Amino acid sequence: MKKSKNLTLHKTAALVGTVIMAIGSFMACLSTNVVATQVGNVLLVASILVMFYGYSAWQP
Amino acid sequence: MKQQVKSKAVEQDSEFSLCAVPESERKSYISLTIVWTGFIFAIISLMAGGTLALGLSFREILIASFVGNIFLCAIAVAVSVIASRTGLTFALLTRYSFGSSGSRIASLFVPVVNVGWYTIQSASYGHFVASIFGFGDVGEAICMVASAALMGIFAFYGVKAIAILGYVAIPAIIFLTVATTIRSVGVMGSLEALMAYRPSAPISLAAGITVVIGAWILSTATCLADIMRYAKSTKSAVAAALTGLLGGNILMLICGAIATIAMDEYDLTAILLGFGLVVPSLILMTTNIFTTNAANLYSTGLNLANSFKIGRTKMMLILIGISSVATLLKPHEADFYYTFLNALGNVIPPLAGIILADYFIVNKGRYLALEKSKFIRWNPVPWISWLVSVIIVFALVSLLPAVVANIPAPFIGIVLGAVFHTVLMKVTGIRVNLKETEG
């Protein structure tokens, strides 16, 4: 039960991380506003950490 | 006692460097696609795209990218079929044609090229990081050594670690590549301007296709086997190989070409830096180099484990150590090193041709399982085929450069190796595997 709950957490982290990465990448590269670019950078870095956590235990 | 040492070595061989990958350890289509696409996503594809843009219109670039990758797919399918059916590394496959002792020498050539490029890429990455953060000579040296060591960690932990890296890196590469390309098109003005682009020094479409094939033929013909031996079925291996080439490689080629047309620069990381976008640039460079280099060193370790008959783990540590120290020689700045590796890039393809012909033609698509086989020590036929093929390829490169401009030298090498090996094996009637082949 606990194992299954843990796997769901990893799966959610992997998928949410991927979505955050998409948003972060496009914000960081395409935005002309400095604040939006910085937010994009933060999202990009955060998404990498979240994805490593997610994909380390769950892979499609 | 000897038996105990042997079984301990087998236990430690979690990456199956000296035996076939068992069915229980086989991986899904998605895992294989992630590892192979991570390998394909490299600066060399962007560079090839940039080269296409210098000589072809955008419509011709699309055609050259597609046709070139169809050629690569043909080789990839053949290699994937052998690897998934046998479960063996490229190095172990050479035993069936070269014999047990011959295989140890034959499987030395691919690692020399791979470890060379690994060291160059590690040094380039270390230099890139040091220049972004404004480090001095000592800082740069530390960055270069650390790069080689860090990339090696993923290769050390094997396919599982490379797959996790791929799952994180590939979305990053796709999103950042597409976003940078969109921004480049924005600088150019419109898609119409892109479609109307005409190069200042046109080249033939055949020459463009050659550029596409030349960029990846070596890895497709050799390293791919080390990844696809993990496939659950031949179908998933073939599908993964095709996805990497037709999806990943074409995307990178086209993005490299668009960037060159719009910004006069194929390297997307340099374009991002030009826009002042340091973080995306660093992430794109890191994901690009790490995925390629980790798979590259992994394949190298497997080949050398076969050559020197030592454990893969020990071999990986030796390779990471040598490569880390070698980055201090700044190989990315030495022209002769590139010339040497490119020359070796023409030496290896006939070997791939020999392996393909030996499996599909000489042995009619069947190899007896490795553990049931007993090989002769040396078979002179593949060596003769290889030598003659290499001599012809180098003669063509130096005497008939026009031919090589339209047909890639590695492709010629593969065909020559396959033809000579098939003919000579038929003529001599040599049997490399002393046990009967499977019926």
Q: How many individual helices of chain A? A: 2
Low-confidence stretches of chain A: none
Number of E-state strands of chain A = 0
What is the CATH superfamily classification of chain B? Hydantoin permease
Q: Write down the overall mean pLDDT of chain B.
A: 89
CATH topology of chain B: Hydantoin permease
Average pLDDT of chain A works out at 92
Strand content of chain A: under 5%
Largest sheet composition of chain A: none
Please count the beta strands of chain B (DSSP E, at least 2 residues each): 0
Helix content, binned percent of chain B = over 70%
Q: What structural class do the secondary elements of chain A suggest? A: mainly alpha
State the assembly state of the protein chains: heterodimer
Number of domains of chain A: 1
Q: Give the amount of beta strand of chain B, in percent.
A: under 5%
The CATH class name of chain B reads: Mainly Alpha
Low-confidence stretches of chain B: 1-11
Please describe what this structure looks like.
The complex is a heterodimer of chains A (60) and B (439). Chain A has one domain (14-57). The mean pLDDT of chain A is 92. In chain A, helix 1 (2-30) runs antiparallel to helix 2. Chain A has 60 residues and is an all-alpha fold. Chain A has helices spanning 2-30, 34-57. Chain B is mainly α and 439 residues long. Chain B starts with a helix and ends in an 11-residue tail after the last helix. Chain B has helices at residues 2-12, 29-40, 43-55, 58-86, 90-93, 95-98, 100-106, 109-133, 137-156, 159-188, 191-195, 205-221, 223-228, 234-263, 268-274, 278-308, 312-326, 335-347, 349-362, 380-399, 401-406, 409-428. Chain B has a single domain (30-349), classed as Orthogonal Bundle (Hydantoin permease). In chain B, 77% of the residues lie in helices and 0% in strands. Residues 1-11 of chain B have low confidence and may be disordered. Chain B is globular and about 65 Å long. Chain A binds chain B through residues 14, 18, 21-22, 25-26, 28-30, 37, 40-41, 44-45, 48, 51-52, 55-56, 59-60, and chain B through 28, 30-31, 163-164, 167-168, 171-172, 175-176, 179-180, 182-183, 272, 275, 277, 279-280, 283.
